[in-house]
Amino acid sequence: MTTLTGERPKAPSAGQGRWIEDWRPDDEQFWNETGKHVARRNLVWSIVTEHLGFCVWLLWSIAVINLDKVGVALSVGETLWLTTLPNLVGAALRIPYTFGPARFGGRNFTIISALLLLIPCALFVYAIENPDIPFWALLLIAATTGLGGGNFASSMSNITHYYPTTKQGLPLGLNAAGGNIGVSVTQLTMPPLIVAAGLVAVGWVWMPLVLVAAVGAYFFMNNLRHATSSYTIKEMWGISRKPHTIIMSVLYIGTFGSFIGYSFSFGVLIKNQFPEISASNYIWLGALVGSVARPLGGLLADRLGGARVTFWNFLAMGLGIVAVWFAVDAANWAFFLAAFLLVFATTGIGNGSTYKMIPAIFRNKALEGVDRDDEGAVASALGTARRNAAAAIGISSAVGAFGGVLIQQIFRISLEETKAISAALVILAVFYAVCVLLTWSAYLRRRLTVGTEKVSLAQAGV
């Protein structure tokens, strides 16, 4: 699209307007001249807000191992429920949060989602200052931290629209890693803060940072006009039923579900299996390794193909869980920590590679049978693909987070019924084997038409 003078319209810089009317990231000239600069600016503040969302989401994962210091005594089952419910709520909120940017605009919804984080922070302060409140009230207060878990879906679906399909692996990986590392930041920085200022400080510390994020989003982010529309229930249901949405949701249970499930449970598992070890000293390592590995997964997927990386990564995940089982059986703390950190690294790599796959899958399916010389038809197909991919990303992220809940419950049941986690580890190893077979069957073996050739989805860049 050009103006009457023949010049291409420029995307606005910060302060020049909140809505971008013309946005064509797949147009190389537009992307190089203005697109990438605006995309990077929006990505930065998306990362900041999502990061704080994860920090707030994980508040109770560190609080539960310190509640005895404020006079709250819980059983192992109650402790795991107190970390499971935030995960469950965060997973459920990812579905409506996915469509928030499409309904209100990416910038607008980022501001809203940031300010909502003040609610769980304030309620956390109330809960710690009133240790005699009943357990059901404690559960409800913990559930509000799920607002932070919803941020991931809105952030990822929004950022998807800013980048060319062929270059989404790394920015989506960075965006997700920026959020994921909030898990590690909470688990690393909160123990010394608790020692210095008490458990209640864990709620107070995030409030000014949340306000900074909301102000930054207000001044430096934009809304994309072409990405703003309301999804009908029929459309949402249709996208959720697409075979690739279902398959990728299952795979994302294996990657992100594992990451968040292990992150919420790691401290409890350490305390239960190795009571002589101070869990607070190590709980943050897993989430840090998984978060740092996520951009690597996106980068590898950009270069090698998401399906190939995902396939080999699930093999490594299964082997890692087997190593954890051997470590538990041998009661070897050093081996347990090393093996679990390997598993955390594979969850991060898999998160990056699976999220690279989703836009590529919908792009190739949309272009199948489309005349590549017809610019209008290609542009229409790419627009539909980008919209469907954004929705699929949100749906998959919600299902993946629900997977984290399942993993926590597997550990809870295993501990309560057998007093050990070996049974849970066997179930997880079998599930990763299923994911290996599913990836191979759906994306390394399946073929589609590109031009006049039949190629596998992996060969087509998935």
Question: What does this entry look like structurally?
Answer:
With 462 residues, this protein is mainly α. It has a single domain (26-456), classed as Growth Hormone, Chain: A (Up-down Bundle). 75% of the residues lie in helices and 3% in strands. The protein has helices spanning 28-57, 59-63, 76-98, 100-104, 106-115, 118-129, 135-143, 146-160, 169-197, 201-204, 206-220, 233-241, 243-273, 283-304, 306-330, 333-367, 375-418, 422-444, and strands at 19-20, 223-224, 447-450, 453-456. The chain has a two-stranded parallel ribbon. It has a two-stranded antiparallel ribbon with strand order 3-4. The chain is globular, with a radius of gyration of 22 Å.
Structure summary:
This protein is mainly α. The chain is 75% helix and 3% strand.
CATH superfamily grouping:
MFS general substrate transporter like domains
Q: Which structural category do the helix and sheet elements fall into?
A: mainly alpha
- Amount of helix: over 70%
CATH architecture: Up-down Bundle
Number of strands: 4
From the structure provided, what is the oligomeric state, counting identical versus distinct chains?
single chain
Can you give the mean pLDDT? 85
Give the ordered list of helices and strands.
Answer: EHHHHHHHHHHHEHHHHHHHEE
Q: Measure the end-to-end span.
A: 29 Å
Main pleated sheet: 2 strands, parallel
The shape, in one word, is globular
Strand % is: under 5%
CATH topology: Growth Hormone, Chain: A
**The CATH class:** Mainly Alpha
* Poorly predicted sequence stretches spanning 5 or more consecutive residues: 1-9
